[in-house]
Amino acid sequence: MCMSVHNLLKLKQIYTFFIAGSPEMAFIHALAAAMVTSFIARACRDGQLASCGCSRGSRPKQLHDDWTWGGCGDNLEYAYK
């Protein structure tokens, strides 16, 4: 009986940590948002989503000359929406 009460209290502490606003959770949420944005942008680029396509951006200037530019960049504009 004591062990199950202890486990419930521990579970409540963990739940409160994840629900309550904390710098750590803000960081985790920011990482998750960045990952989702990146996945959507790349899915647009790869033609996996019917509602968007390649970005309208031109070849990046910082791209090395020996790299071949396929003309289709990540569509970050769509992903931000």
TrEMBL record:
<dbReference type="GO" id="GO:0060070">
    <property type="term" value="P:canonical Wnt signaling pathway"/>
</dbReference>
<keyword id="KW-0325">Glycoprotein</keyword>
<keyword id="KW-0879">Wnt signaling pathway</keyword>
<keyword id="KW-1133">Transmembrane helix</keyword>
<dbReference type="GO" id="GO:0045165">
    <property type="term" value="P:cell fate commitment"/>
</dbReference>
<keyword id="KW-0812">Transmembrane</keyword>
<comment type="function">
    <text>Ligand for members of the frizzled family of seven transmembrane receptors.</text>
</comment>
<keyword id="KW-0964">Secreted</keyword>
<keyword id="KW-0472">Membrane</keyword>
<protein>
    <recommendedName>
        <fullName>Protein Wnt</fullName>
    </recommendedName>
</protein>
<dbReference type="InterPro" id="IPR005817">
    <property type="entry name" value="Wnt"/>
</dbReference>
<dbReference type="GO" id="GO:0005125">
    <property type="term" value="F:cytokine activity"/>
</dbReference>
<dbReference type="GO" id="GO:0005109">
    <property type="term" value="F:frizzled binding"/>
</dbReference>
<keyword id="KW-0217">Developmental protein</keyword>
<keyword id="KW-1015">Disulfide bond</keyword>
<keyword id="KW-0272">Extracellular matrix</keyword>
<dbReference type="GO" id="GO:0030182">
    <property type="term" value="P:neuron differentiation"/>
</dbReference>
<dbReference type="GO" id="GO:0005615">
    <property type="term" value="C:extracellular space"/>
</dbReference>
<dbReference type="Pfam" id="PF00110">
    <property type="entry name" value="wnt"/>
</dbReference>
<feature type="transmembrane region" description="Helical">
    <location>
        <begin position="14"/>
        <end position="41"/>
    </location>
</feature>
<keyword id="KW-0449">Lipoprotein</keyword>
<comment type="similarity">
    <text>Belongs to the Wnt family.</text>
</comment>
